[in-house]
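Hello again,

I reread your note about wanting to compare the complex against the isolated chains. To keep things tidy I'm splitting this into two emails, and this first one only covers the full assembly. Below are the input lines as submitted, including protein chains and any nucleic acid or small-molecule components. They are followed by the predicted structure of everything together. The single-chain runs will come separately.
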Amino acid sequence: MSPSHHWYGIVPGWLPYYALIAVALVLFARRAIYLVRLLGIGKPAVRWDHMPARIRAVLVFVLAQFRLLAGDFWPGLMHATIFWGFMVLSLGTIEFFGRGVTEAFSLPLLSDTPGYLILQDVFSLAVIAALAYATFRRLVTRPKRLTLSPEGLLILGLIFGLMVTDLLADAARMALHPASHDPWAFAGHALAGLLAGLPAGALMVAFHAAWWLHAAILLGFLVWLPYSKHLHVLAAPLNVFFAPLTPKGKFSTPDLETAETFGAGALSDLTWKDLFDLYNCTECGRCTSRCPANMSGKELDPKLLILNLQDFLLEGAGAPHVSGAHEGQPMVGGVIKDNVLWACTTCRWCVEACPVFIEHVPKIVDMRRWLVLTESRFPQELAPTFRNLENNGSPFQMAWQTRADWAADLGVRTMTDVGEAEYLYWVGCYGSFDERNRKVARAFVKLLQAAGVDFAILGSEEKCSGEPARRLGHEYLYQTLAQGNVETLKQYKFQKIVTACPHCFNTIKNEYPDFGGRFQVIHHSELLDELVRSGRLRPGRESARRVTYHDACNLGRYNDIYDAPRSVLASIGRTELAEMELSRQRGFCCGGGGGRAWMEETEGRRVNQVRVEQAMAVNPEVLASACPFCLTMFEDGVKAKDVGDKMKTRDIAELLAESLDNK
Ligand code: SF4
Ligand code: SF4
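Full-complex prediction:
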């Protein structure tokens, strides 16, 4: 608003004006203090270290709205426009309330300047356009991920009201008392032209009505904000600031010897940051939109998981959207059902998609920990998996002594034989015991040998990295395996660990440092890419073949490795790479992560079959992957869908090794 000073003479100093502001501020502060105190029931978590990185995150993800714009572009632009408008027009709001106190109030270097007046009107109109688009989406196109709620529409209406009253008050003032700078506020000025013929009394009434309505909406909004889902307006910048800066694939490592409870069975077992997350949900549904569990018909809905926990936290606290439906229920098994927790593949789509940086997966794993370690309650098929991990050091039933049998005829050396090697090839349980993945291990060894790489394996000294145990909530088992492996690895000299398993890769690289195991770890796709680029491996000319590549969640979303495997595939002559619609950062899980590879899948459709269908949609001859979990899931999926004659499943190492034969 760009008022002329004498126009405000009737407003300042009014007791009702001050009283209104005071009441709104007191009500807002009361609720805000309540919400902050509620966080006190959570466990501690340090989220104010690495200040420069945190400030950078706020600049990129809050001010520049990067994640929203990089996701669904048009809805993202709509939100960014409203947000940027909110920032610009907030200055006008300060001016607005300031001039209600004293006529002479002005923002230094801003008030009534041409640039600022233009910017204000540009954003007023842009916000109105964005609101129209938002309303159209909610009422007409109705994307599945959005919940149509009266609250959402009311908020859109209130913001619209703010824009219109602002322009109208400006226009009425200009029509009555024109000022030289008015034309710069082009929208208000044009509106003033339309009002010009009205009598002065009517213009006066219009100005006062618009002015007071604007003040009332603003103050009402302030009071309502902390009760509504638009609490995120205030909370989200802080949630981005407090976002974890640890590697994405690293879960918390509780001290099991001193812990009084294991995992999260109640709100007080979650951290204050987990609880703060719950204030942030905008109900946008981005997390659910590509959740493989939800898309394949499971009850798990990450948005609902957060909203149910939010409900549970705020129950009885008077928030209008709180149902009260969970009163008296336990958090795990009541508010969040067991099957919901077990359906998660820990693919991290939800976390990466969430514009306000809510961390769904750590909460799910914490609740699984409570189920397994405190309640001893888990799907029965996991009992043999846990038993095998405990007895054989792998999820499979085979004896640990046979771990290196796959390599018996390959001339592969063990670290016990050599004591030192450039690369320690970490084979993983699938490569060691699973028939299909043993072929991948053999292909990889062939490539290493062809390139003359100095490597050795741990042989029967290698145990499961513990990744499935941790994701399944069996933290005790995970920590035992991790500690054992770190001790073994520390006995030998090597420069890098290389593994074909993204699950082992992520765990050894990102989670073993908690046990003193700091190793340089690379994925086989990275090493193969390097060997091809340096000319140590020379792929042959394949007959032309259309290949689609599936990004493993532990490689892609967890560790940002997208290019190396594609580059390996591209190096194989005449390979045509066809991307699936859901690839790279938006990749769809194979269904085997989060320990799901060892669980029955009885609810809805099978995730691996959904992914195979997505692959079939681009008509490839080969569905390539770089993960033994994915390969296993696809082998099953292709068999179940009976499409093996049209599409083969291969690891990138197999394709590269085959091409060496075709020179
Ligand atoms: S991690 Fe994946 S499967 Fe689990 S809730 Fe998130 S999107 Fe769904
Ligand atoms: S958790 Fe995040 S992505 Fe999911 S609905 Fe809430 S704000 Fe949107």
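For quick reference: Residues 291-293, 300, 302, 344-350, 360-361 surround iron/sulfur cluster (ligand 1) (CB under 6 Å).

B.
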